[in-house]
Design goal:
Elements lengths: L7 H10 L2 H8 L3 H15 L4 E4 L2 E4 L1 H29 L3 E7 L1 H18 L3 E7 L2 H9 L5 E7 L11 E16 L2 H5 L11 E4 L5 H10 L6 E6 L2 H9 L5 E4 H4 L7 E4 L6 E9 L6 H13 L13
Parallel strand pairs: 3-4, 3-5, 7-8
Antiparallel strand pairs: 1-2, 5-11, 6-9, 6-10, 6-11
Length: about 300
């Protein structure tokens, strides 16, 4: 026995309307057209589906079974239509994101499984780079959006035509000192530090923050060692060679063996934002990426909140 699924809506409407005439009116068809479809359906199943009477029709046991099937088919079709409609509204395309090292490793990389789930239609390409390269890449359209950092004392670089900026988070600066420093001093006070400050490469995002903090001190000494990466700074500090400021976000990535961290008044924070290009027609994929980063860096968002991260 083979049933034409296309005939089931006629039986379903007959059951709901209580008769062929009422069903024909609801379907905007002639009564004979509805009767023909019912007759063909009964021929296919080889049993009567309705009992006709002057008052209308009553479903037989077989008719009730097919009506239940018709309702299931109707529900599945409607749910599928909703899913297709929702899928057609999801953003799609490609997004090229440039970011500095600690944002890439501390925020973007752990969130990639979540990206693939929430933005399945958006292909993400990431490139790690320094601030000048990121801004240049945005100007030349090598990137669709870039994550940038700056100390709170530094004004933001000019946006340029067709570029917008959205703040993401303020990442506190933390004093990192060799293990045992607090035990030796009792209370950590910047003016009383006996250890030198590690030199930091001018290309590092820490440079301006360290200069700002040290300018307020009555005196400070400089270590003969210069670093560019957070990992090198931690190694030098663990070796007892000096102290440094590091962003709290970056400290989450490394072992802090041999060092201790202190959040002190006046250290300030680095401001992290995302910049993106705006064309004549908004790009839904870029807009979705910006919104994703905003949600990802919102207060209270942690790796524990998201099993994928």
């Amino acid at each position: 026995m083979r049933i034409a699924v296309s005939r089931l809506p006629f039986l379903l409407q007959i059951a709901r309307s209580g008769g062929v005439l009422a069903a024909a009116e609801a379907l905007t068809l002639t009564p004979s057209a509805v009767s023909q479809q019912l007759a063909r359906l009964e021929a296919e199943v080889r049993v009567p589906l309705v009992i006709r009477s002057p008052r209308g029709v009553t479903l037989t046991a077989a008719g009730r079974e097919l009506v239940e099937l018709a309702e299931n088919v109707e529900r599945e079709v409607n749910e599928a239509a909703l899913r297709v409609g929702a899928a057609s509204e999801l953003p799609s395309g490609s997004v090229r994101l440039g970011a500095f090292q600690s944002f890439m490793s501390g925020v973007i990389a752990p969130a990639l499984p979540r990206w693939r789930t929430e933005l399945a239609g958006v292909h993400l390409e990431t490139v790690e780079g320094e601030m000048p390269d990121l801004l240049r890449g945005l100007r030349t359209a090598a990137f669709d959006l870039v994550a940038i950092e700056r100390d709170e004392s530094i004004p933001p670089p000019p946006l340029g035509p067709g570029v917008r900026e959205v703040p993401l988070l303020d990442d506190p600066w933390v004093l990192v000192a060799p293990a045992g420093t607090q035990a030796a001093m009792g209370v950590i006070e910047l003016d009383q530090l006996r250890l030198p400050w590690l030199e930091v490469d001018r290309s590092s995002g820490v440079h301006q923050a360290a200069a700002r903090v040290r300018d307020r001190l009555s005196s400070s000494t400089t270590s003969p060692h210069r670093y560019a990466s957070h990992q090198s700074a931690l190694a030098l500090i663990a070796a007892g060679e000096g102290v440094a400021l590091l962003p709290q976000l970056a400290l989450q990535e490394f072992s802090l063996t041999g060092v201790e961290t202190h959040e002190l008044p006046g250290l300030g924070s680095r401001r992290i934002s995302v910049r993106y290009r705006v064309g004549r027609k908004p790009d839904p994929a870029v807009g979705a990426a910006v919104e994703f980063l905003q949600l990802l860096t919102a207060p209270g968002e942690t790796a524990a909140d998201h099993p994928h991260r």
